[in-house]
Design goal:
mainly beta; about 45% strand; single chain; 4-stranded antiparallel β-sheet
Length: about 325
């Protein structure tokens, strides 16, 4: 999310891990090849991250991706082994039509194509934010709605205008267990869903706590989101099939943004303490300090690394989640 504009730095942490006897990174790869909307059988890989005794410092990055312009979110495409990075663009005005998705190397951080996705003149990207992959499509949220692009060619496929729902701040995206794209609206305490090319309100209410980052838990077929507000707990779990909304995991920090699953564990960005947290069995701890306020993170499941964008610093830092990931 951004709600502020380009910001600042601090200190803190990261982790090591233990592979269970049967599985390893091959299982991580198999699970991550599935579309974001996969459901049914438990797709959790048998990998276990362990929080370090002391968090790693903010300067422990493997490398940085620089030359960006307000990077708000990163998405890892396992099949192509690249990062997609959404950039607000050079003009900080919210309605400026100069946002874009860059394509970068996962190995080195080299920008392979800066303006890989931009949108047509009629519906350009305007401050693009969270992204989700579904089949051959990359979905992107922006100021007015959500866009679908061909994730291989970068071609713009369609735009779904959500302004009829008077959005406050369209933010992160995930593909639900029903295969529909969902987008959080942090400014209106609602989650919107795209069905048959149109938007509808899927969930709304003060109990949502200003939903920000969102991800699918394939094991439970629940959409899990973290809040921008400071209510406890910071996690909410919602089952689209039953409509059940429950309070979820807890971790210190606050102003939570990007959230990703690594097997049954969760990695989440916290802006209050400028740190990446690891949530295991319902409880989280900070594991990696960040130099700026972390926005919508991505996890490279192949190498067990986390990519952390900073809107204010115009860069993305990539950290190892394990010693092996270095």
């Amino acid at each position: 999310m951004h709600l502020a504009s380009r910001s600042t730095p601090v200190i803190l942490m990261i982790l090591a891990f233990a592979l269970s006897a049967c599985g390893g990174t091959d299982e991580v790869n198999d699970a991550s090849r599935r579309a974001d909307g996969a459901s049914g059988a438990d797709a959790r890989p048998s990998v276990r991250l362990t929080a370090p005794a002391t968090p790693r410092p903010a300067d422990a990055m493997l490398f940085s991706i620089t030359g960006l312009e307000g990077p708000e979110a990163v998405k890892y495409d396992e099949e192509q082994d690249v990062f997609f990075i959404s950039n607000y663009g050079p003009n900080e005005s919210e309605d400026a039509p100069d946002g874009y998705i860059a394509r970068a190397s996962v190995e080195t951080g080299e920008i392979l194509e800066r303006h890989f996705m931009t949108g047509p003149d009629a519906t350009p990207l305007m401050e693009p934010r969270g992204m989700a992959i579904h089949g051959d499509e990359l979905w992107v949220a922006d100021v007015r709605g959500v866009h679908a692009f061909d994730r291989h060619s970068g071609e713009h496929l369609r735009f779904v205008d959500l302004t009829d729902h008077d959005p406050g701040f369209l933010n992160d995206m995930a593909i639900g267990p029903d295969g529909a794209p969902y987008v959080t609206d942090t400014g209106r305490n609602q989650v919107l869903r795209v069905v048959d090319g149109e938007g509808e309100v899927a969930l709304t209410g003060e109990e949502l706590g200003s939903p920000n980052g969102i991800a699918l838990d394939r094991a439970t077929s629940e959409l899990v989101f973290v809040i921008w507000g400071r209510d406890a707990p910071p996690f909410r779990r919602w089952n689209p099939a039953t409509g059940a909304l429950t309070m979820g995991e807890t971790t210190p920090g606050g102003r939570f943004d990007g959230v990703e699953f690594v097997g049954s564990q969760i990695v989440v960005a916290s802006q209050v303490d400028q740190a990446i947290h690891l949530v295991t069995d319902g409880t989280g701890v900070p594991i990696q300090a960040t130099e700026g306020r972390p926005a919508d993170i991505a996890v490279d499941l192949r190498r067990l690394r986390v990519a952390v964008p900073y809107i204010a610093l115009d860069r993305v830092d990539v950290f190892a989640l394990t010693e092996a990931g270095r």
